[in-house]
Amino acid sequence: MNVRKIVVVARREYAETIKTKAFLIGALFTPLLIIGLILLMARIEVQKESKPEPINLAVVDRTAQVADVLLTLVKERNEGQSEGQVSVEIVPETSDTAEALNRLKKRVKDKALLAAFYLPVGAIEGEAPCIVYRRAGDIGSRRHTAEWLVGQAVRRVRIAKAGLNVEQVLRVSRGLGFEHRDVTGKQTKVDDEITHMMTPFAFLFLLFMGVFGVSQGLLTSVVEEKSSRVVEVLLSALSPLELMAGKILGIALVGFTLILIWATAGYGAAVWKGVEGLVQIASIGQFILYYVLGFLLFSSMLAAMGSACNTLKEAQALTAPMTIVIIVPMVCWFHFAQHPDSTLSTVLSFVPPIAPLVMIIRVTSTQAAVPIWQQIAAPLWLAVWVIVAIWAAAKVFRVGILLYGKPPGLFELVRWVRYR
Amino acid sequence: MTDAAVVNIEQVSKSFGSVRAVRELDLVVPAGCIYGVLGPNGAGKTTAIRMMMDIIAPDTGRIEVFGSDDLSVVKARIGYLPEERGLYRKMRVGDTLRYLGSIKDVSGARLKRIVPERLDQVGLGNWASARVEELSKGMQQKLQFLAATICDPQLLILDEPFAGLDPVNVETLTAEVWRLRDQGCTILLSTHMMAQAERLCDSVMLVHQGLKVLDGRVADVLGRYDPRKVILQTKEPSPDIDRLAMVEAVEPKDLCMEVTLVEGANPQDLLAETIEHYTVLRFEIKRPTLNEVFLALVGESI
Predict the structure, then answer these.
(1) Is the CB of B86 less than 8 angstroms away from the CB of A16?
(2) B57 to chain A: nearest residue by CA?
């Protein structure tokens, strides 16, 4: 093996690939997707932590008993709160209720009101529901607060009507507070979960695009060299192994470049939106480890399969089974992130083609930590497969790259491994 | 091994599945000659060349090039123009030569100097920054030849170099091959175009179905076969000579006739016999062509 020649091949592969349209699309559009994802995460974070907004409500009280209690309740709630003040407008009883409601609905639509509540006769007895007029798709904590207030007012009226002491009943029916901690004793917030689920997904997405997306470029490049017949000229100067190694190295560097662009865009957006704390430095180390192992495994398999085909269409047909397998972690990522210590997660961490993707979800998940032995054994086991894959790929590549005609099946490729 | 041999192949065989592409091949290519490997399509020429280039490994036998059996170390001294020619379509002309030169261990500084020179020599000087796909087919063939010789090879292997060339380019390539030979480069070419080979080669090897049929210097090979054909023209039309025992067949050709003699017959006897009865205007002993030799040996033409 002549390292200088490998570097020459890698340099050409890199220089020619970054000039292609596919690279430009990957370099520009994927960051937009990543930034979009981060903005979504930031939005969820911001909604949780930002200053509460004022809540404006209107209530049509046909029971004629709830309005006063509600006003008192709102007054109690507003005391001691400088922000997120609740204001309730009690709409007086008129002869034309429908007309009054129409006016209210229009104000809700114009966002002058968060919601309008219509308490029909019988609401206190539980015979009819309270109707809430709100904007479609408008969900969030403000509406929950509003509904809680109206509901609580009705409950107080019921307690009083039952002849009980409101203060006492409220005291005994107070809720129990819960504080969440993980197994290390660290305090966690339940409502952080959605945001934190996004972190493993972001890593999975980067790894998937970096490994599978980029190594498709290698497949194209191998098939192109073969179909344009340039490969024989190359093989008169290089050994098949040098050619394959150079191509893999060149495309791997293309992948690193893309990931660097994506990660910079992603981290920039995260810092801008103040959610960069979601990414741990250790996760980045793990990512690089699984990128290198995953890329070597995939690209050597794809190089071998590409060498056996004459057209991209044949190559895609031959690689289809692998594509289907690789989709599994993409479809099941939620399970791996939510249950990183499940039997399924553990087993799939040792199944070569998908192991890098499963492991990156597990180790970046904020759920229970992956056992240390698995964090060591999984990459080692994967490394063994990487070596086997490169060895077999070199054998297949040597046979396939000069064979023209009908493309072989997967079993035929396995037979080539045994050729001299 | 012969001292001056550039290529020395001993008992090399190669099979692909049940197909025996090359069988117990022996070949010695002396330094400084033009050596032709001749045979019909599928004879095993390309397989033999690929083994010499270390592109595929032989099943059995031994191959030495420049006295070394580790072919990877001598690759940089060998120029190769494969039968299946191709270039990177999107790559620029100058970049293509620089890339193919650098994988042949030509230094960057030298490539910087010689690439424009070589392109100028073949009239592609203004095309250095054009993409390969913008070149005409003839230009691409020139570029391929430049790529094969960019490393100033001591051995140049040309696999079917005349395939697809027009007569002008055949002449240009022939002249280039002679020029390189005069500079001391050994040239090994495979072809199924016998006339070209006869004109160009000092020595040839004929292969058929993976087996060597014969080899040697062109003059020796042709000399080994009796001239049995004579071109004859007499003043009198239709001389009655096919009655002679020494004549096997007579075929009229324009104003003359082509006379095939029986095996072992002496053309001089035919001349004496003809002069006795007719006025001879033309008498020419026709030398056999390589194609006829091949035909005589394997019973089929190339």
Answers:
(1) no
(2) A420
CA dihedral A201, A207, A213, A216 (to 10 degrees): -150
* Domains in chain B: boundaries: 5-223, 229-286
pTM, 2 dp: 0.73
Q: Is residue A305 part of a domain?
A: yes
Render B255-298 in DSSP notation, one character per residue. TEEEEEEPTT--HHHHHHHHHHHS-EEEEEEEPPPHHHHHHHHH
Q: Is B59 on the interface with A (CB under 8 A)?
A: yes
- A110-133 core/surface letters (b: 16 or more CB in 10 A; e: else): eeebbbbbbbeeebbeeeeebeeb
Give chain A positions within 8 Å (CB) of B59. 420
How sure is the predictor about B2, in pLDDT bands with cuts at 50, 70 and 90?
very low
Q: Which chain B residues in 182-211 lie under 8 Å from chain A, judged by CB atoms?
A: none
List the domain range (segments joined by +) for residue A74.
Answer: 51-172
Span A409-414, average pLDDT: 77
Contacts of A398 in chain B (CB under 8 A): 56
The tokens for B146 are 């430049």
Q: Give the lowest-confidence range in A25-29, A402-406, B196-200, B206-210.
A: A402-406
ipTM over 0.85: no
State whether A16 and B91 contact (CB < 8 Å).
yes
Superfamily grouping for domain B5-223? P-loop containing nucleotide triphosphate hydrolases (3.40.50.300)
**Is B243 near chain A, with CB under 8 Å?**
no
Cβ separation A236–B59 shorter than 8 A: no
SS3 of A53, please? coil
- Cα gap B104→B183, rounded to integer Å: 20
Select the residue of B55, B99, B100 nearest A402 (Cβ to Cβ): B55
Residue A54 tokens read as: 């004022």
How many domains in chain A?
2
Return d(Cα A303, Cα A290) in angstroms, integer.
19
Contact B85 A420 (CB under 8 A): no
The reply to whether B239 touches chain A by the CB within 8 Å rule is no
* pLDDT reported for residue B302: 52
- Could you report the per-residue pLDDT of B40-55, keeping only the tens digit for each? 888 888 899 989 888 8
What CATH number is associated with residue A79? Answer: 3.40.190.10
Contact call for A9 and B103, based on CB within 8 A = yes
